[in-house]
Amino acid sequence: IPSVSSIVPESCLLIVVGLLVGGLIKGVGEKPPILKSDIFFLFLLPPIILDAGYFLPLRPFTENLGTILIFAVVGTLWNAFFLGGLMYAVCQLGGPGLNHISLLANLLFGSIISAVDPVAVLAVFEEIHINELLHILVFGESLLNDAVTVVLYHLFEEFASFEQVTILDIILGFLSFFVVSLGGVLVGVIYGVIAAFTSRFTSHIRVIEPLFVFLYSYMAYLSAELFHLSGIMALICAGVVMRPYVEANISHKSHTTIKYFLKMWSSVSETLIFIFLGVSTVAGHHYWNWTFVISTLFFCLIARVLGVLVLTWFINKFRIVKLTPKDQFIIAYGGLRGAIAFSLGYLLDYKHFGMRDMFLTAIITVIFFTVFVQGMTIRPLVDLLAVKKKQETKRSINEEIHTQFLDHLLTGIEDICGHYGHHHWKDKLNRFNKKYVKKCLIAGERSKEPQLIAFYHKMEMKQAIELVESGGIGKIPSAVSTVSIQNINPQTLPLDRVLPALSKDKEEEIRKILRTNLQKTRQRLRSYNRHTLVADPYEEAWNQMLLRRQKARQLEQKMNNYLTVPAHRLDSPTMSRARIGSDPLAYEPKEDSENLPIITIDPASPQSPESVDLMSEEPKGCSGLPPSPEEDEEGLVMRVKEPSSPGTDDVFTPGTGDSPSNQRMLRCLSDPGPRPEPEEGEPFIPKGQ
After folding, report:
1. How far apart are CA 503 and CA 491, in angstroms?
2. What is the rounded end-to-end Cα distance, in angstroms, of the chain?
3. Topology in the membrane (predicted)?
4. Are 34 and 278 in contact (CB under 8 A)?
5. CA distance 606 to 672
């Protein structure tokens, strides 16, 4: 029913199914099965955590690790003590039915109910496709708060059996947090390395390769739980450590098997957990107390909101990408409780905690409220607040290159600043991994393969599989290199080509040949230090050569302009008159042009022969003096004829801002064209003679 599943999360529907099944079993007179804690912690929870740890998006997780740890550790401690203290106050004021509940019992109840549940968060957040930052913050918190929950649970459980709790017990309890969390991490790392090392020798038994991944992961979880360490942190660390090395060693079929088997296994466990929650609700013994249950629910919400607001205010002082009020609301609203709280409550002993049934009733109420109310309303709220959603984009080689480039760049900037930050230690770890760890844990030539090439092979294989699944087998190029073929039949790499070593003299000779034949070659400077910067000996010679070429080019251009007729279209008489009339200052007379021949133009009819009078056409050589270079450059000058009267033609009438001399026009054509023949009887006498 798509209309229902689009509104109600899958976890809510599964709890409803469990309620119906439990009611049906009880209706026929049978006793419904209850979700026992051993079954939950040993068989149902590990597949979900392993799936989350093995496929954990490592880059966003490590970049936001500080924020996640603050929410997981400080936030969970705040929730537990705030809720436990307030519930103790409620019990003291709540009447005879609650007076006997001690402070330790309330603190234990607060530690159980305060932790965000990874199963419930996964079930809801994967359906609403929230952006990667918010998803990793809430989900990372739900994974890492396990250590705090385990420590507080066992601590208060032990204190309940003591007659008196001393300061030493509290200090030891505080130190046990580091033992539980770091011990779980260490166990996970050890088993992850063993699994990676084992996968190096499985090339001849591909069938059981996936078994080693599941076996060592489960052994890490059991070993951690055996010593009361954090099993969830051990599983996550085992999955994160083993994955890059295991995937480089195993075949592609084994990788596919691991991926789909983990997804199927975790999905089945999640389904059973929520169904059993519904069945156990019907089957369990309940003790309903309105004051206790309503107070628990109210204080849970208040503690979560206050914790997120205060911690985010502190975290934003150190974060580059700040958490906005919308992000804070989603983080606070996404604090869902689930089956871990129910199972821990079910583990309580009646001997020390006679109010176990009331605790379980309150826990189930909080679980149902968070899963049903918050889980169902978070999707409309995300749409209403326009919170950024996850972008389904495929990673590309281009993106990988730029990501690696930015990592190297930021590492270099940190080294220059002397600030050993996140990128510095990440680079150190990558170098150590490449130099030592890969050689021990990865078999064959894959240990020497660059990260970019490995990523390219992975993308190529993924694309080939998608083509096969979509039926486009004919589109696959013939030269597709596959990871599985490399793993099954490892081929020896061809020997590296030996490049001839050049002596310094030979190298300098090649540089000289290149300089004479290529215009823009420069000697590359080896050092970028300003104290050791060496000047290029050829730089000055090249500058002189470029200046000489530029001067020669300018001179050649000037000669061409002087000797040849420019190839531009002549304007019509009307356009000429309009241009001259619009800008008379453009034709300013030159100083030394008094002795030049002058042609007077009547603008009224420029084409009539009568309008052109030769006023002075004295040859330059007649005066007995050689022509000056200025006269050679200026050529002939055309003068505008003054109008006979002010009203005749006022286009060329000099204005007040003009020069005192007459307006003249520089002649732009070297050849004025054929002169009109003088008619018979017309005197050919220059003016003024």
Report:
1. 36
2. 115
3. Multi-pass membrane protein
4. no
5. 14
Query: Which distant-in-sequence residues (6+ apart) come within 8 Å of 520 by Cβ?
Result: none
Q: Which residue has the tokens 């080689």?
A: 397
Angle at 397 between CA 396 and CA 403, to 5 degrees: 90
The tens digit of pLDDT for each residue in 294-316 reads 989 999 999 999 999 999 999 99
pLDDT category at 30 given cuts 50, 70, 90 is: confident
Dist CA 230 CA 303 (whole Å): 25
Residue whose tokens read 């300089």: 515
Where do the domains of the chain lie, and which CATH numbers do they carry? 1-385 (1.20.1530.20), 403-450 (no CATH)
Cα dihedral 259, 337, 142, 393, rounded to 10, equals: 50
Report yes or no: 403 and 44 within 8 Å, Cβ to Cβ.
Answer: no
Reading phi first (left if > 0) and then psi (alpha if -120 to 50, else beta), residue 521 is in: beta
Q: Amino acid letter at 235?
A: L
- CA atoms within 13 A of residue 30's CA, in its CB half-sphere: 10
Give the residue among 393, 407, 322 at the shortest CA–CA distance from 64. Answer: 322
Beta bridge partners of 665: 638
Token pair belonging to 194: 């063993």
Q: Do 230 and 146 contact (CB within 8 A), yes or no? A: yes
Residue positions counted in the chain:
689
Determine the angle formed by the axes of helices 132-144 and 231-249, rounding to 10 degrees.
120
Question: Rounded to an integer, what distance in angstroms lies between the CA atom of residue 162 and that of residue 149?
Answer: 20
Section 438-443 average pLDDT: 84
Mean per-residue pLDDT, 251-270:
90
b/e string for 487-519 if b means 16 or more Cβ within 10 A? Answer: beeeeeeeeeeeeeeeeeeeeeeeeeeebeeee
Could you say which DSSP state residue 32 is in? P
Percent of the chain with pLDDT over 70: 72
Start-end of H helices in 115-250 = 118-128, 132-144, 146-161, 167-199, 209-226, 231-249
Q: How many CA atoms lie less than 13 Å away from 128 in the CB half-sphere? A: 31
Query: How far from chain centre, in Å, is Cα 391?
Result: 11
- Which of the residue ranges 167-181, 340-354, 521-535 has the most confident prediction, judged by mean pLDDT? 167-181
Closest CA to 304 of 70, 78, 69, 65: 78
Check if the beta carbon of residue 170 is closer than 8 Å to that of residue 177.
no
CA proximity to 107, closest of 71, 159, 176? 159
Q: What span, in angstroms and rounded, lies between the C-alpha atoms of 121 and 146? A: 14
3-state secondary structure (DSSP) of residue 637 = strand
Claim: this prediction has a pTM higher than 0.70: no
The H or E element containing residue 639 is strand 637-640
- As a dihedral over the C-alpha atoms of residue 130, residue 363, residue 221, residue 425, rounded to 10 degrees, the angle is 40
Q: Tokens representing 500?
A: 């001839």
Instruction: Report d(CA 614, CA 51) in Å as an integer.
Output: 104
Both tokens assigned to 447: 């240990």
